[in-house]
Amino acid sequence: MPSVLGKLVCVTGAGGFIASWLVKLLLEKGYTVRGTVRNPDDPKNSHLRELEGAKERLILCRADLNDYGSIREAINGCDGVFHTASPVTDDPEQMVEPAVNGAKNVIRAAAEAKVCRLVLTSSIGAVYMDPNRDPEQAVDESCWSDLEFCKNTKNWYCYGKAVSEQAAWDMANELGVDMVVINPVLVLGPLLQPTVNASVLHILKYLTGSAKTYANSIQGYVHVKDVALAQILLFETPSASGRYLCVESVIHRAEVVEVLAKFFPEYPIPTKCSDEKNPRKKPYKFSNQKLRELGLEFTPVKQCLYDTVKSLQEKGHIPIPKQNDEPEPEPVHIQS
């Protein structure tokens, strides 16, 4: 890809967990970034102004995904768009319609502005919720969540993600927008924003004593920096197309608490499973080959967990133990 100096890109929902990292890495690479936020003056966005290069090359603009005029203004003149803003809720009314309308508005504005490429952040939620999938078959980019199953189980997050991604593909194809989609699993790692987001809360509960047991369930994990690097890679690689599954590991909650207890034994990490009657759930197989082929190297899940806890300590969300001499994970791939 030619030099990025002078290239202007828009990041929607710039204050979010993944988006903040994306803004940070884009600025470090030399891009000029226009970040959309609900309120540029809100102190919760102040971390963005402190990023390296922000003074010179970050413009925060007030925009609402449901207000086409504000989105068009933010995207106008941009070379590329990273659409990361989306509601995270289990309320169907707050999840589905705003996510679909927001994606449509961003794609319409991108088409009008004739951007080179739009990178849409979807989710594993749009991919793996399918009761009829063969457990021996690896989850990959060809998989889609079963909408009826999501509705029947009231999994509105996955339903909303699948519906909004499908609507985005339909609109991008109709308007001729060059769009690629990234589908990350649960994202962990250091927080740049001051508040604890939903995915990091998933780990925080094991450190505060609020979770007395862990669930008999499995989860895919990926490092936040890897997601941001992948988004930039998808923007900068002309041959990139379609969907890209962004996942490093799929592991059982028992392994999560084992890793946490090993590195941070001073916290009240649960040791009992809430369901000891049923067999232990098996992780699904997955393929992250498409991103690996583009050159992305994934951070091991143990490092993700370690970095998350260190960040929660540094941000003051959990007390730092007096003798903090926990072993740091080796920065090599650890077989789990």
UniProtKB/TrEMBL annotation:
Signal peptide start-end: none
A GO molecular-function descriptor: cinnamoyl-CoA reductase activity
Gene3D superfamilies named among the record's database cross-references: NAD(P)-binding Rossmann-like Domain
Assigned EC number: 1.2.1.44
The UniProt record lists the keyword Oxidoreductase: yes
Residue ranges of the region described as Disordered: 316-336
CDD domains named in the record: FR_SDR_e
Keywords: Disulfide bond, NADP, Oxidoreductase
Domain NAD-dependent epimerase/dehydratase: 9-241
Leading EC class: oxidoreductase
Pathways per UniProt: Aromatic compound metabolism; phenylpropanoid biosynthesis
Keyword NADP assigned: yes
Family (UniProt): Belongs to the NAD(P)-dependent epimerase/dehydratase family. Dihydroflavonol-4-reductase subfamily.
Full protein name: cinnamoyl-CoA reductase
